[in-house]
Amino acid sequence: MASFVFSVIVVLCCVSSFILVNTLGIRRPYNGNETKQLRFDGKKGEFRVLQVADMHYADGKKTPCEDVLPNQVAHCTDLNTSAFINRMIQAEKPDLIVFTGDNIFGFDAADAAASMNAAFAPAISSKIPWAAVLGNHDQESTLSREGVMNHIVGMRHTLSQVNPFDVDVIDGFGNYNLEVHGVEGSSFMNKSILNLYFLDSGDYSTVPSIPGYGWIKPSQQFWFQQTSKKLQKMSKAPGLAYFHIPLPEYAYFDSSNFTGVRQEGISSASVNSGFFTTLAGAGDVKAVFTGHDHINDFCGKLTGIHLCYGGGFGYHAYGKAGWSRRARMVVVSLEKGSHDDWGAVKSIKTWKRLDDENLTAIDAQVLWSRRPSGNRRKKPIHRV
Q: Rounded to two decimals, what is the model's pTM?
């Protein structure tokens, strides 16, 4: 009888813990690691994000590169992709690394888990927090799409999630958000002053009458709307969104209204799911970052939101011979408070670095800046 009572108590405790975790939204640790709270740096008042788009990793040194001139990179393999990540980490010292899909190229990966382990190894060894979403090629090896995301969230130092803990039904795998709190010791230390959204843009359409790539579904958009609304009640923080397949609105730009280059068509879904309208309606997301189209690397502004490509990163991905692989940096800076402490977000800037001898930085631009209170536009005076 005593053992039965003890067993009942243990079960009740486990159930209570599960309810507490899900009710309070506590982020459960993965693989024995405590989940790191993202926070702005107290010395420079910055938060730095490195975007890695389309690694297309396969089998390491056995995997040849694509679209590389013989005099551009000698004996090129997947290892050149790993070397590029290491160089970017050393040069930019990011606070977060974001992988925006097609992390592995499933058709050429003999073992999906082994390929992912190798692909994410530079981020893991750096001990820098990292997050990932899926592209359209990640599930084409030995693991399903869900299996790939499950493997990712079990890796060291990742903040990735399969899906939100408190949502029962949502399409895809890899929809989640991360909060970035203010500087330790500042008045914003317990508030998220930068919100990051990650979504699964799918792989291919499963609707017979709709050809082409996948899209962000209504269930995901509803989750985003509810999450954005909840976060904005706590603080009017700007947001950034990361996913793989570009929105149809990326096609609205040409060389007259973007920074960077457009060297191929916009490979969005063949239908418009309305997610750009959802983003604009929420009001907090200032920029969207995708991959998928490797030789596009532009940023253009539409209805107050910048739509940006990361630019092709991986050497086993198609590219353009003689056109350097590249990565995108985003640096979010804080304003100084009245008492010389760090305040809310002041600006969001971006640039790209090329994988050349000097890691050349190009196309620096301001994506968003907070208008100083003294420069607010005055209402017009209507004289009688």
A: 0.89
